[in-house]
Design goal:
Layout: E1 12-16, H1 20-31, E2 35-39, H2 43-59, E3 70-73, E4 85-88, H3 94-107, E5 113-116, H4 123-126, E6 136-141, E7 150-154, H5 164-173, E8 177-181, H6 190-206, H7 212-220, H8 232-239, H9 241-251, H10 263-270, H11 287-307
Parallel strand pairs: 1-2, 1-4, 2-3, 4-5, 5-6, 7-8
Antiparallel strand pairs: 6-7
Helix pairs in contact: 1-2, 8-9
Length: 315
Amino acid sequence: MSTEATRPADRAVGVIGAGRMGVGIAQIFAAGGFRVHLVDPIDDARAKVPERLAAITARRRQAADVVDRVSLHATAPAEIAGCVLVIEAAPETVELKQRIFRDLDARCGPEVVLATNTSVIPVSRVATDVRHPGRVLGMHFWNPPYAVRLVEVIQAERTDPALIAPAMALLAEVGQKPVHVRKDVPGFIGNRLQHALKREAIALVENGVCDAETVDFVVKNSFGARLGLMGPLEQSDLVGLGLTLAIHSVLLSDLDCSRAPQRLLVDKVAAGETGAAVGRGFRDWTPEARAELENRLDAALLDAAGGSGETKNTG
């Protein structure tokens, strides 16, 4: 993968899947000057792309002609074979992702880097059937990808280590903040941390310690308020590892260590209480409340992304 031999306008990136993540990823590369081939077999998904691209571009205060660099396709075009990178951003279904990678592996020469945007599935499972596993890696973008700039670059067991540095350089070139995940563990780094917190949060509600609103209030108004400025291990160093050890000696044995989803979560999903989209999850939602939170979150994340110059490139 070359990041310097040609200008962005001379290079193309493929994105498979035109959902929220796929459209956001396509916009990032288009805004970086790349030609983008965005592929989705679903007519309705493709029909929504122009409006979504225009909205993201406007939110990012970028030139309207960014959207002209994205071409839409129902199936992977011949040009996909000439891309420097193809990113799969399909739903989180192992069999679907494996099928996409088999097709891409057959269409693209071994020099084309293939990446999966899976948020939790090990890259090695996605790449089970490819003939050239050395050119497959993970690129986990966060939602929304144009506002949350971190990308986890996952090195699977059979990934060619020489691909990692240029892949990270390419992501940095389009304004993202790549980090190198050296082991292909489920959930990688961010989601392992996030869902360890969610497991304990659900347990607190399930065990009657507090309600869901109180959990969220405590997080937002205590340690959550400083997480954007200081990570958990940074905070441990700041207060002293002796204090962290003392707290762990009392607390760890009492934390939830369920190895399966908690009954509260299972029962809510079974009852159709699946969250804001249907009006009820851990709390009740109105369409207005959902829209207000999404808009406020989007604006705050975009503001933070635009105002931060910190980068983190690890090898």
